[in-house]
Amino acid sequence: MASHLNELCLQKIFQYIIIDSDEDYVQQLFYCALVNRYWCINAVPLLWRNPFRRYTDQSQIISTLVKCFEYDKNHDQRPAFRYDLFIKEISLQDLVIAVDDLEMNEVFDRFKSYLLKLIDTTENSFFELSCYFENFDEKINYDKLKLNLFQLTNAKESLGKLKSLHISCTKDIEILESALKICPYLSRLEISASYEFESEYADMCRLLDYLDSFKNLRHLKINCGLVIAYEHGNEFLTRLGEKLPRGLETLRIEGDMDFSPASLEKFLHGAKQIQFKSLSFHESECIIDAHLEVILKVVKDSNLHVGIRELEISYITINQAQKLQEQDINIIVD
């Protein structure tokens, strides 16, 4: 019976397994791959879509990829699959965690030389790279591994198509600086601060200084962390408004950031001429009527030309909601 299912049916089954099982789908897909060769051919690409995040035997994953890259048809046995062609997402954090405690320096050094080749083989048009390092995670030795792909030889040719980048704050300023030089088409950026370091505010400000240089940036998500949210909310919001690129469409600020109506007004003045498809102050409990009055005032000011199609906030009265909807602003209460 299993052999009579066509490829479309199998893909629907596998996608159901992935959605329904969440983190446990790897084991279930592995069992599916053992049914027969036909099932194996259809399951393996899904198993290798993001292998560094899902598998525990990371040394075997890296060794297998190295063999794929170093395969010589005249001397080597042909691999069962070109596993490198199936990878669609690379998380440097997962990769670093995978090799940090392994005694495989020679293999990993060889693997690093193939990272850009691996990126070149990806065929999806929306390529995503995660350069996310929590600076309080002792398992990650970032300084030792120096995994800044943007500084590798021929990085521009391989990463010029990059459209999405996720970075953390203190460890990855160098990464954003390098990306600015070679990634003109970056359209989505996610910046995450940690939750306990005073230095995070200064580091985040340095990152903000680069924002308006990314002319094609359309989507920005910032998790500001506790220190910024509680101690620097007003200054941070004002500075952010000044640095946003004019073509930005969605902005999502996560964290319970405390900021005054006056700071919100400065932010929106700094963001003049930006037409937000979505503006989100996710989890900010400080929002009161005065903040909403500021938003109404700004969107009505034809000189500022600030547009907000959708607003996500944690608080709103029925009266204020009606006023905002009169300005064609869709309200989402988180």
UniProtKB/TrEMBL annotation:
InterPro entries: LRR_dom_sf (IPR032675). Gene3D superfamilies: Ribonuclease Inhibitor. SUPFAM superfamilies: RNI-like. It comes from the Eukaryota. This is 12306_t:CDS:1. It comes from Ambispora gerdemannii.
